[in-house]
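> Could you send the Methyltransferase domain-containing protein prediction when you get a chance?

Sure thing. Input:
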Amino acid sequence: MTDGARLVDGGDVTERVLRAAEGPHGSKPVPWAAAPLLTAERVLDLCCGSGPLADALPTGRWLGVDPRAPLGGRRPVLRGAADAIPLRSRAVDGVALMLALPRLPDLDRLFAEVRRVLRPSGTLVILVPSAVPGSAAELRLAPLLSAVHRSGWLHRSALDRTGWLLAAADYAVLSDDRVCFSLPLPDADAAHALVADLPRAGLWPPDLPDAVRARAAARLARRAGPGRTLPLPLRRLVARR
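Output:
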């Protein structure tokens, strides 16, 4: 699946899932991702989908780029691909790439384009799922989540080795933080809905095999109940050109 297909099919789903997720002390994924970019004068949101990042930034500082410039999202949005950004060189102070890196086809071209449009000392923020268990709740689901993340990603290394990819592309990695958010799992219907939504949202592999989907739905349906949640670990990397 291309980055364009993800955005057309799953942009609104991504926003809905991220808004439902909650972390420690009531934290939310989108404001957490936006925090390193709050002082940037102009932020480019690559593969922006419906553009939830815009709501977490100061007014007038957000610009989206999307392969299909979807209707109904925030504005302004330019139509363009992540590896062919329709902007002049050194046009922005910050770039965000949320839940798209493991799916993009040419990471070398992507990082070169980001370097081109960023001004000197500009900030790049990347948000990716994490596949390595880091809490007791994640360890209890480790066999399931390992099976989920084992196949279906175009770039599996872009999950928990994003820092290595950035360093190899000659970016200075300033921070690599991990937070385990959670999604409500009140009943079996919610479990089945999450198994359908998470691949479309960029949080699980888009090409998850049917057999893995079925096992995941059955396992989460058995886990579901009042007060139950599904761990949603995310990594936020901050880098400079």
